[in-house]
Amino acid sequence: MARPTKCRKVCHFPQTLDFVPVCDAGENIPVILTVDEYETIRLIDKEGLSQEQCGEFMEIARTTVQKIYESARKKLADVLVDGRPLRIDGGEFWLCDGQTIHCGYTGCFKHLYHQQYNKPKGDPIMRVAVTYENGEIFQHFGHTEQFKIYDIADGKITSSQVVDTNGNGHGALAGILSALHVDTLICGGIGGGAQAALAAAGIKLYGGVTGNADNAVEALIAGGLEYNPDVQCSHHGQHHHEGDHTCGDHGCEGQHHCH
Length: 259
Fold this sequence. Notes:
- It is a single chain.
- By secondary structure, the chain is of the alpha/beta class.
- It is 29% helix and 18% strand.
């Protein structure tokens, strides 16, 4: 019997999921690079880690890293030599949420957030995050410098506070929200890669929301939050009420990941 595949820890979800050659007419089948393969490329080729260090970071054996890395490099060669499109999708991975103290960085703030904002098991509190700037909903998820975090119980806001993203953006933000034990995100504009990262983290999304952050959360509680799903959801220019549609309901970005 084959041994089950061990999930690979991924710290940064890719910001861009599709790459297409300028001359591509849409006829070539894209090469699929899995998220864990992407992570080995990021850690080894961009961050300069050794395969052993990469294995420690992803919490897998060095020999496993070697196999994943070799597969990733072969796929990238196919893309460059044959001029094929590249798509990042799937894989056996879990998005780092700060549960483990070892992530390659001393004093990982996600680990600190995971401990500081931990919710006891069975706690009925719903935690909502809003991209935040000066009381308003910040309109670019990938560049938000702060989230305002709301705890909701029995249909009421019981507490709220502003949390910094520590200068991180795009692919790291879903991991930050996961470390904060967030259930739902309200934001303005958000791209397909970020949507996929949130889906992988199990975070419900309400995108395309504008105006006052506190008012938006109150509208969510009342079931009347108006929002615009991202372009990836193919609902351009439409408004929906809470409960009608969320991006995770129909698999806008189909993902295979570990739980």
